[in-house]
Amino acid sequence: NFVSAVVPPGEIGIKFDDIGALEEVKKALNELVILPMWRPELFSRGNLLRPCKGILLFGPPGTGKTLVAKALATEAGANFISITGSTLTSKWFGDAEKLTKALFSFASKLAPVIIFVDEVDSLLGARGGSFEHEATRRMRNEFMAAWDGLRSKENQKILILGATNRPFDLDDAVIRRLPRRIYVDLPDAANRAKILKIILARENLEADFPYENLANATEGYSGSDLKNLCIAAAYRPVQEILEEEKELAHIRIPKYESYDAARKVESLG
Ligand code: ATP
């Protein structure tokens, strides 16, 4: 239960093509993860070219890190395990050490697998000094030890993909274990237009819908903000229909009039 999802690659339902913009991120992940999965022979020569075992996605909230992680599992044909740092440290406080062990032994049976650790900072943030609870410290050490066990197994196809909005809170030891770090940035206007096209792909919009105007008017919006904006806009007609229905109902059964009519009937005896 402390794992929020375990999904086989065919069931994730998100591919790189479902993600607007983030071309550099997709390109980097293609080289680091997808190619080594599908063309291992390219990486078997020499000592420097080794499949990557730890990657950090960092950047502002809502920029698509979770989306990228899921799509990566689809593209790489890997199982996807997702855990959230704050759930592991709060809800499973105390049991977390045991569960960490179980997670890694489970994961190694599911290889090829991507373990996505969202909010990796709250699981493996900088050591909390004297305020840190003993159980948290033990769990963190367990996680690191299990992780190192993984990294030493050359052929195990297990990737830890961490995501954070607060990279500066991460422990040095964690940073070292996530040797590749990929910045997932807020989109510029051209990229916002690309994201809007994906978000609105299945809506019934006019052929000349002004994506560029909307993109220009949404400076500073993340992909998630754009999605929320579109959802709010989609609900507007629903609100209008409800308002209209209310007005029609009002015309058909004017409450005060029927009240009046009833009183008149009463007064007639
Ligand atoms: P957080 O840091 O807050 O966890 P995140 O970076 O993991 O956020 P996601 O959860 O992946 O962001 O994004 C939230 C939602 O926003 C997605 O489910 C998707 O609907 C939409 N979204 C974000 N970025 C994109 C994108 N580049 N293309 C299409 N949709 C996007």
Q: Can you characterise this structure?
A:
It contains eleven helices and six strands. The radius of gyration is 26 Å and the shape is globular. 30% of the residues are buried. It has a six-stranded mixed sheet, sandwiched between helices. α4 packs parallel to α6 (134-152). It is 52% helix and 12% strand. The model has no long low-confidence stretch (mean pLDDT 82). The chain has 269 residues and is of the alpha/beta class. The structure holds adenosine-5'-triphosphate (ATP). Adenosine-5'-triphosphate binds at residues 19-22, 61-67, 118, 163, 165, 195, 198-199, 223-224, 227. Adenosine-5'-triphosphate (ATP) binds next to α2, α8 and α10.
Short structural summary:
The chain is an alpha/beta fold. The chain contains 11 helices and 6 strands.
Top keywords for this entry?
binds adenosine-5'-triphosphate, 12% strand, globular, alpha/beta, single chain, 52% helix
In this structure, how is the largest beta sheet organized? 6 strands, mixed
Q: Beta fraction of the residues?
A: 5-15%
Low-pLDDT regions: none
Question: Percent range for helical residues?
Answer: 40-55%
The number of helices is: 11
- Cα distance spanning the termini: 69 Å
